[in-house]
């Protein structure tokens, strides 16, 4: 029995030892990740959120998918993409019209026939109903539409903010860990400074001083949240830099930059990935706090945090508090679950730390 | 120990200078000149009344005068050095907003924030440690799984959501009135009340903010506690203690708990910055007159001296927290020898 087991285990071990290409590692990671059903659920939630963000225009839009009007057939949502891309234009009879009020038109609307920016002052603060599934805010904007389009913000926060943090963190961590010595000492002081800085306070200060823009906000979040990634990278580089293959690469005359980013980095990436995924959750939390405080995001932009903010002032409108907060919570929880699942798969040493 | 303390304090100096330099540069290089901003209110009113060219000239003159008064016309490095010299004597300058001394504004609000954070840290440890001990002594039991799950979920709950839900549902909106929606004392609070009534009123007001500030801390810490306790439980000396016939309670409380508490001390340093960030949100939502609220208001008003001073004070608080937790670590763990082995 044990012989059989070791026989079965052997090819896998050899496979993972030999496959220095990252494709093999990631296939293995995915295979083991799949076994953790909770983490897998988190992963599917992230996927659903991503699909929702990508197809937001088709889920909540004040334009119909299909319109038959004046003897012609139109596909207004698709056309709006073409107009935005500069390859099409609106026919004069459809320019700046309210599609819901076209006489004698046959139209097929998305499930939520509003955009988050559609202001309707006749229906302020309506509780959830068949017409507005999750109610409306004080300007009569549909909350469901705001929630769907808000998922775009949380998705892009994940990519842009953490992308910036990863670039800064990897470069600084790699330099500190690779060169060690006084370079490491200086960069480590920088880490210490960033760790002792009241980050959230720095964030609201910078975000409030700059003109409100969602991309600037993402950049600021990225620029203040790289320390964790940088420290992980540094520690991995310190560990790996003394291994034989690095020494031989240096002996062969490979440039420092190539040793760092072509030879060491792929092997240092595994534990960094975990902090990246957890970093996405952190960035989403921070962004929601910022838009809750009304800092950094333009006033007309509807985000989950900005809907929540309205709830804190109009306290009877419970639907403004429950739904957007729940959306943030589920998103953050999903990223945490994925992060924890990856942590168990990628680096058992890190278990229980955060 | 003294040598270590001195070394640590010396190492704090470059860190402190680095932090203040970053804060100072951000404040000065940000778009939006405070002098222009200050004049903007008057200018706007004047424009409404139809401003003349001479009036614009006198406004420019006022701006220049004001800039000279606050030293904003000197080169940046001179401004920084002057500012650094002044904070040595707790002189953080005057607020752009109301010309009050910044330090007196901070001194007025510091106790509130310290009180809030003190109780929060206390709650974090008082809840997390028993939970962690329970989880670790009953590993994989039903209770352990429930606390693990609850801690994980709590950790993902956004503070802004928890606070808003509290305000909407239990703070006297259209639903329940279990807790006050803001402030630290009732409106009719008077010094003539008997002491128990004063305490009760204050406790009633501070309860919700403290719970909200601490929940993600105790969710996280209880996990650490569980992990570190399990690690200690697996040590040989625990087996020895059991083998020589000590009652389980004594093994846990005397031998395991003490050793697994050691790493928790260092966590203090890492939850402190989070608490300061959280105070901004909680104090703003519950209108508690602490540093967080002052910070938020000053940021919105671009009151640079106040913002910079708050930035410095909270960085100092964090640095002190890190230092204290390191010293505590040395105090509780005699195995840690500071000095030569460091670095």
Relevant terms:
heterodimer, A: 354 residues, mainly alpha, three-stranded antiparallel sheet, 3 strands, 67% helix, disordered N terminus, B: 343 residues, 12 helices, disordered C terminus
Tell me briefly what this model is.
The complex is a heterodimer of chains A (354) and B (343). By secondary structure, chain A is an all-alpha fold. Chain A contains 14 helices and three strands.
Output the helix-strand order of chain A: HHHHEEHEHHHHHHHHH
Gap from first CA to last CA of chain B: 16 Å
| CA-based gyration radius of chain A | 25 Å
Per the principal axes of the C-alpha atoms, what is the gross shape of chain A? elongated
Flag low-confidence runs of chain A.
1-20, 350-354
Largest sheet of chain B: none
First-to-last CA distance of chain A = 39 Å
Radius of gyration of chain B: 26 Å
Helix content of chain A: 55-70%
Order of helices and strands of chain B, N to C?
Answer: HHHHHHHHHHHH
Overall spatial form of chain B: globular
Number of contiguous helices of chain A: 14
**Pair of chains with the largest interface and how many residues each contributes:** A-B, 49 and 59 residues
Helix content of chain B: over 70%
Q: Summarize model confidence as the mean pLDDT of chain B.
A: 83
Structural class of chain A: mainly alpha
Please provide the count of β strands of chain A.
Answer: 3
Content of β-strand of chain B: under 5%
**With helices defined by DSSP (H or I, 4 residues minimum), what is the helix count of chain B?**
12
Beta-strand content estimate of chain A? under 5%
Structural class of chain B: mainly alpha
């Amino acid at each position: 029995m044990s012989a059989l087991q070791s026989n079965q285990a052997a090819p896998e071990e050899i496979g993972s030892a030999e496959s220095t290409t990252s494709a093999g590692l990631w296939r293995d990671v995915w295979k083991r990740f799949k076994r953790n059903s909770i983490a897998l659920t988190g992963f599917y939630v992230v996927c659903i959120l991503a699909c929702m963000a990508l197809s937001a225009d088709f889920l909540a839009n004040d334009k119909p998918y299909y319109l038959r009007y004046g003897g012609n057939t139109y596909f207004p949502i698709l056309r709006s993409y073409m107009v935005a891309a500069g390859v099409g234009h609106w026919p004069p009879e459809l320019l700046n019209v309210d599609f819901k009020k076209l006489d004698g038109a046959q139209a097929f609307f998305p499930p939520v026939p509003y955009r988050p920016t559609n202001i309707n002052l006749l229906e302020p603060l309506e509780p959830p109903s068949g017409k507005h599934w999750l109610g409306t805010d004080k300007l009569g904007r549909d909350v469901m539409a705001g929630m769907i389009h808000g998922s775009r913000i949380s998705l892009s926060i994940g990519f842009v903010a953490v992308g910036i943090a990863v670039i800064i963190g990897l470069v600084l961590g790699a330099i500190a860990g690779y060169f060690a010595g006084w370079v490491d000492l200086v960069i480590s002081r920088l880490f210490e400074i960033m760790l002792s800085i009241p980050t959230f306070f720095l964030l609201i200060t910078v975000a409030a001083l700059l003109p409100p823009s969602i991309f600037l906000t993402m950049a600021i979040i990225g620029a203040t949240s790289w320390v964790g990634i940088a420290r992980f990278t540094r520690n991995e580089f310190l560990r790996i830099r003394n291994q034989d293959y690095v020494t031989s690469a240096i002996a062969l005359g490979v440039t420092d930059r190539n040793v760092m980013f072509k030879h060491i980095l792929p092997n240092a990436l595994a534990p960094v990935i975990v902090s990246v995924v957890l970093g996405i959750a952190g960035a989403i939390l921070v962004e929601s706090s910022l838009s809750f405080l009304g800092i950094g995001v333009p006033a007309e932009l509807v985000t989950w945090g900005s809907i929540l903010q309205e709830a804190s002032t109009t306290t009877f409108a419970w639907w403004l508090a429950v739904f957007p907060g729940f959306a943030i919570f589920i998103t953050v929880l999903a990223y945490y679950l994925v992060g924890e699942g990856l942590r168990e798969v990628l680096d058992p040493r890190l278990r229980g730390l955060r | 120990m003294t040598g270590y303390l001195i070394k640590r304090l010396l190492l704090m100096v470059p860190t402190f200078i680095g932090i203040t330099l970053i804060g100072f540069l951000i404040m000065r290089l940000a778009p939006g000149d405070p002098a222009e901003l200050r004049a903007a209110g008057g200018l706007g009113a004047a424009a409404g009344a139809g401003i003349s060219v001479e009036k614009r000239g006198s406004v420019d003159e006022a701006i220049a005068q004001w800039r000279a008064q606050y030293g904003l016309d000197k080169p940046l490095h001179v401004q920084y050095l002057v500012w650094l010299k002044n904070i040595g004597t707790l002189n953080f300058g005057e607020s752009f907003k109301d010309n009050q001394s910044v330090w007196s504004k901070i001194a007025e609000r510091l106790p509130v924030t310290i009180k809030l954070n003190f109780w929060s840290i206390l709650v974090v440890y008082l809840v997390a440690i028993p939970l962690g001990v329970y989880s670790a002594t009953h590993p994989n039991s039903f209770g352990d799984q429930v606390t693990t799950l609850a801690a994980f979920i709590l950790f993902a709950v956004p503070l802004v959501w928890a606070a808003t839900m509290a305000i909407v549902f239990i703070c006297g909106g259209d639903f329940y009135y279990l807790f006050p929606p803001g402030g630290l004392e009732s409106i009719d609070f008077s010094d003539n009340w008997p002491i128990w009534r004063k305490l009760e009123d204050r406790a009633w007001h501070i309860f919700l903010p403290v719970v909200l500030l601490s929940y993600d801390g105790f969710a996280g810490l209880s996990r650490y506690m569980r992990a570190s306790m399990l690690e200690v439980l697996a040590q040989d000396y625990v087996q020895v203690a059991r083998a020589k016939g000590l009652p389980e309670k004594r093994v846990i409380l005397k031998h395991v708990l003490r050793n697994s508490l050691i790493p928790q001390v260092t966590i203090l340093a890492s939850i402190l910055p989070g608490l300061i960030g959280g105070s901004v949100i909680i104090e703003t939502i519950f209108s508690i007159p602490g540093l967080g609220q002052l910070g938020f208001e000053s940021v919105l008003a671009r009151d640079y001296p106040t913002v910079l001073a708050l930035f410095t004070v909270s960085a100092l608080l964090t640095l002190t927290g890190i230092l204290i937790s390191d010293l505590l670590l040395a105090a509780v763990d005699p195995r840690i020898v500071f000095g030569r082995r460091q670095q």
